[in-house]
Amino acid sequence: MAVAIRDKTTATQLMAVNADGSINVPALTKGTQGASGLSVQNLLDAGRNVICWTVDQFPAATAADTMLTVTASVNGAATSTYSSYTITSGKYLYLQSMVLTYEINGTTVATVRPIYVRFRVNTAGACVVASPIQVNVGVVPSVAYSTAAALLGGGASQEYVFQNGLSFLGNGTTSVGFSSMAPGWVTTTTLPKLSMTAIAFEY
């Protein structure tokens, strides 16, 4: 049995839903805007939550990998901090981009060392430094500075964009997190500083 969908004001039939679930839609005239139509939504936009993770001037204090404590804001709401985030059960998490900023905090070329950031995933619980690396990116500034004073406070920025999104399904257990390391760091008084912005969304 087919079900007719009608305009509530004029009772004009707009379309029919057949017994097998298929829909008979009205014919369209090319080049002419119809008086009615169907609204559609991409599933990626259904229940989408935008997540912004940031790190502000984190001192890269050791060559050993260390989990970063990120500040998170969901849909622009108040922030929270954590080093491991559990993906919402039944939703996909899409990592879209990362921006890393490096600030030199020394006056000799020896103090300029790369900083690496790793995006990790753990399907069995909280994310830790032993969790599998999914993305490994880094940033290091040029050392072509004319004076030591110019070197201090210099830096660089690098953006990484994941064209189709790096996606992971949440089941109430799977977690993600970021770790960082600065191999070859010199002394605690000249630690390079890392800032990061990572953009993701869940749907």
User: What value does the average pLDDT take?
Assistant: 81
Distance between the termini: 35 Å
Strand content: over 45%
The helix-and-strand class reads mainly beta
Strand order of the largest sheet: 7-6-4-14-9-12
What is the CA-based Rg, rounded? 25 Å
CATH topology of the largest domain: Jelly Rolls
Poorly predicted segments: none
Number of domains: 2
Count the beta strands. Answer: 14
Main beta-sheet strand count, sense and barrel state:
6 strands, antiparallel
CATH architecture field of the largest domain: Sandwich
Specify the overall morphology: elongated
Q: Approximately how much helix is present in the residues?
A: under 10%
Query: What is the CATH level 1 assignment of the largest domain?
Result: Mainly Beta
Give structural notes.
This protein has 203 residues and is mainly beta. 2% of the residues lie in helices and 46% in strands. It has one helix at 148-151; strands at 3-6, 13-17, 23-24, 49-59, 66-67, 70-74, 80-82, 85-86, 92-103, 115-122, 133-139, 155-169, 175-181, 193-202.
Quick take:
The chain is mainly β and 203 residues long.
Question: Which features characterize this protein?
Answer:
2 domains, elongated, 2% helix, mainly beta, 1 helix, 203 residues, 5-stranded antiparallel β-sheet
What secondary-structure arrangement, pairings included, does this model have?
Elements: E1 3-6, E2 13-17, E3 23-24, E4 49-59, E5 66-67, E6 70-74, E7 80-82, E8 85-86, E9 92-103, E10 115-122, E11 133-139, H1 148-151, E12 155-169, E13 175-181, E14 193-202
Antiparallel strand pairs: 1-2, 2-3, 4-6, 4-14, 5-13, 6-7, 8-13, 9-12, 9-14, 10-11, 10-13
